[in-house]
Design a protein that fits this description.
There is one protein chain. The protein is of the alpha/beta class and about 425 residues long. It folds into two domains: about 200 residues, 3-Layer(aba) Sandwich (Rossmann fold), CATH 3.40.50; about 240 residues, Rossmann fold (3-Layer(aba) Sandwich), CATH 3.40.50.720. Helices cover about 45% and strands about 15% of the residues. Helix 1 crosses helix 3 and helix 11 packs antiparallel against helix 12. The longest helix is centred in the middle third of the chain and has 32 residues.
Length: about 425
């Protein structure tokens, strides 16, 4: 199949590379000339394990190409995927669909013959109707079917998620579109990946509802963690106890500093706004958004409290800046709020992250970025573990103790057992358990 991916950001690049790896002919289109030139030269603009290798292999085989010109590629396409950004709109929190609408107009002018136009971007309910209307108004002769095919990729595990999905959701009532989408995803049938066909609006809502539920689950266990600290319980054991119930499941029950990234914050907010517009307010999700925002600042206050309530002039080592490990994504990372709050309280911040420092530098002025955890810990009155990168799971505490001014670890991800750390002379403060 000939596939065009409009947008070569995270979703478009991962999806395009994986489709090419299935044997399809894929062209990724983007207006950013610098990005396309970098991709053509083999430079990947994002960090995602395994992505660079797949891109290089399929460029070499001719299955994957990059361009700034849509017309030629779209004219020969069986399917054109819209994978452009849908950030939160300034002022009201709705999803900004301007990039989607512009892509629809350009696709309308470029397609030849029957083409399936697929919204891969995360979009509010009814966006597929808008795309269909825009294409019809721009080119009344366009023979197209508009489908919704939401992505469910986790940053840091996107390749595996794409190739071994829990499900593939496609929203369309057009039998021709179903046939094309079945052929596109046919390579996954060998893995018995379930293909779920729904109406277009249902597919659009599935994506938002799924992300909102997972965000709510994270926020729930974070609030339980606060209660655990007050009553002397251990949130990790609570999570294990309730997660063993098949009706609940263990995933996303890890207490920490709150969720971040490119999906959960904007998608929960967009869903709240959509629900309000339709006079069906989602009170649980509204509360989830509010509690998560408060959570990030509360983690900074937790660090300050562990340090005796006064951090003015004291050095704090921050280990981990990205919103999760195995990505360089700083969007809505808890570290942003934590660092800002600590700086507002007068602390001096030294930080290290394996992949996110270049992205963090323009967002975190007056932070000293270091070469490794031990350099960050030099003369620190406390170490705060904010992102659970693998290389932070086996820190050399003897080396750390020689570097720090005060042997205090605030473990916001509960990576370490207290006895592991205390035997090295450190005081450890975790989340949802005794200090």
């Amino acid at each position: 199949m000939n596939i065009v991916m409009v947008g070569s950001g995270y979703v478009g690049l991962v999806s395009g590379a994986c489709f090419a790896d299935f044997g399809h002919n894929v062209t990724c289109v983007d207006k950013d000339v610098g990005k396309i030139d970098a991709l053509k030269a083999g430079r990947i603009p994002i960090f995602e394990p395994g992505l660079a290798e797949i891109v290089a292999k399929n460029m070499k085989s001719g299955q994957l190409a990059f361009t700034t010109e849509l017309n030629e590629a779209a004219a020969a396409a069986d399917a054109v995927f819209i994978a452009v950004g849908t950030p939160s709109r300034r002022g009201d929190g709705h999803a900004d669909l301007s990039y989607v609408h512009e892509a629809a107009r350009e696709i309308a002018r470029a397609v030849k013959g029957f083409t399936v136009v697929v919204t891969k971007s995360t979009v509010p309910v009814g966006t597929g109707d808008d795309v269909e209307r825009i294409i019809g108004e721009t080119n009344k002769d366009a023979d197209i079917a508009v489908a919704s095919n939401p992505e469910f990729l986790r940053e840091g595990a996107a390749i595996s998620d794409f190739k071994r999905p829990d499900r593939i959701v496609v929203g369309t009532d057009d039998p021709r579109a179903r046939q094309v989408m079945n052929e596109i995803y046919r390579p996954l049938f060998i893995n018995a990946s379930p293909m779920m066909f729904t109406t277009r609006r249902t597919a659009e809502l599935i994506k938002y509802a799924g992300n909102a539920f997972l965000a709510m689950k994270i926020t729930f266990i974070n609030e339980i963690a606060d209660l655990c600290e007050r009553v002397g319980a251990d949130v990790q054991e609570v999570a294990r106890g309730i997660g063993s119930d098949n009706r609940i499941g263990s995933k996303f029950l890890h207490a920490g500093p709150g969720y971040g990234g490119s999906c959960f914050p904007k998608d929960t907010l967009a869903l709240v706004k959509t629900a309000q517009d339709h006079d069906a307010p989602l009170r649980l999700i509204e509360t989830t958004v509010a509690v998560n925002d408060q959570r990030k600042r509360a983690m900074a206050r937790k660090i300050i409290s562990a340090m005796g309530g006064d951090v003015r002039g004291k050095t704090i080592a921050i280990l981990g800046l990205t919103f999760k490990p195995n990505t360089d994504d700083m969007r809505e990372s808890p570290a942003l709020s934590i660092v800002q709050t600590l700086q507002d309280a007068g602390a001096v911040i030294r930080a290290y992250d394996p992949e996110g420092m270049e992205q963090a530098k323009p967002l975190m002025p007056d932070v000293a970025f270091c070469k490794n955890p031990y350099e960050a810990a030099k003369d620190a009155a406390a170490i705060a573990l904010v992102t659970e990168w693998d290389q932070f799971r086996a820190l050399d505490f003897k080396r750390l103790k020689k570097a720090v001014a005060t042997p205090l670890l605030v473990d916001l991800r509960n990576v370490y057992r207290p006895d592991e750390v205390s035997r090295h002379g450190f005081t450890i403060v975790g989340v949802g358990r005794k200090a």
